[in-house]
Amino acid sequence: MDFKSKIMTWLFLIGSGLASCQNQNSKNVGGPCEGCEALFEYGNKKLTSIDILPGFQYNEPKLKITGTVFKNDGKMPAENVIIYIYHTNRKGIYPTKGNETGWSKRHGFIRGWIKTGKNGRYTFYTFRPAAYPDGSESEHIHITIKESDRNEYYLDEYLFDDDPSLTQTKRNKLPNRGGSGIVKPYTENKILTVKRNIILGKNIPNYK
């Protein structure tokens, strides 16, 4: 093989490798997901179906978030699914303590993780977040999810049906990833409660 042929072969192999990587990336469940790797930042914490977020004890209104994660058929409960959430404080900012590492530098310390059991149930105890100070976003809680056999991906944020800033225009633009993220608060046992069931893969790109 002459020098020119070797160069052409080398360029072909490089091109094939890049194409393969791009193809694999394009097939990631859910598409691009900035910060989704924060889902793995629970450290040595043993995950259960219930978690209490920092600030729950001394912030009002206290908030209970609960529901069931279902498989793609919308009927069978999904086991061993990790859910990661984070949100702002009552001033609308993501608070930090100054010693954060990883994605907690941006997400702040008000965050939590659970892993579903056989019944697919999950519960977070936290408090209702405030909207961003500049009013650019409605009150919301971010959520990322990880199934045992798929990469992590984000779902529609938890949004509050009684939030006046959540206009019909905003509602119409929601992709409903995992099902609707709009929750209706009600009081149960003297605590503000919202329920959201999640259907794995619903409206999620590249989900098979």
Chart the SSEs and their pairings.
Elements: H1 3-26, E1 50-52, E2 62-70, E3 82-86, H2 104-107, E4 111-115, E5 121-127, E6 140-146, E7 153-154, E8 158-160, H3 168-172, E9 182-183, E10 186-188, E11 191-195, E12 198-199
Parallel strand pairs: 1-5, 2-11, 2-12, 8-9
Antiparallel strand pairs: 2-5, 3-4, 3-6, 6-7, 6-8, 10-11
Tags for this model:
Protocatechuate 3,4-Dioxygenase, subunit A; single chain; alpha/beta; globular; six-stranded mixed β-sheet; 208 residues
Question: Any idea of the CATH class?
Answer: Mainly Beta
Overall domain count: 1
In the CATH scheme, what's the topology name?
A: Protocatechuate 3,4-Dioxygenase, subunit A
Catalogue the unreliable spans. Answer: 6-26
End-to-end gap:
44 Å
> What share of residues is helical?
10-25%
Rg estimate, integer Å: 20 Å
Structural class: alpha/beta
**Global morphology:** globular
Strand percentage, roughly?
25-35%
> What is the succession of H and E elements?
HEEEHEEEEEHEEEE
**CATH architecture annotation:** Sandwich
Supply the CATH superfamily name: Aromatic compound dioxygenase
Q: Report the count of strand segments.
A: 12
